[in-house]
Amino acid sequence: MSNIHSIHDLEVYRLAFEAAMDVFHTTRTFPPAERYGLTDQLRRSSRSVAANLREGFAKRRYSGLFARHITDALGSAEETRTHLDFAVACGYLPEKVHAEISNKYDRIAAMLFRLLQRWT
Fold first, then answer.
1. Which residues are within 8 A (CB) of 68 and not within 5 positions of it... i.e. 6 or more apart?
2. Is the pLDDT of residue 2 over 80?
């Protein structure tokens, strides 16, 4: 991992940021009644993945702290997927969009798991 100097060198961070932006743009079409409900929850959990990665990276010299933040990022990724499922069930999100974003979170989760195994 010696060639990693910045959080932006981690592909998983770039993908998590991109996925959070996908969620942001997608939720702009959700009904106003969901502003403080599903929309807010989806945006927060999706952003939490990238935020936990960045915070963990800043503390990477302390393997226990790093591992905790990566584990939290994994949890936030799964929380996001749950909210995406609700969005489909409520009729706010087309299945195709759900599949595209969910596939990104599959990749993110796998990358986080590998990162956790290799770095700690």
1. 56
2. no
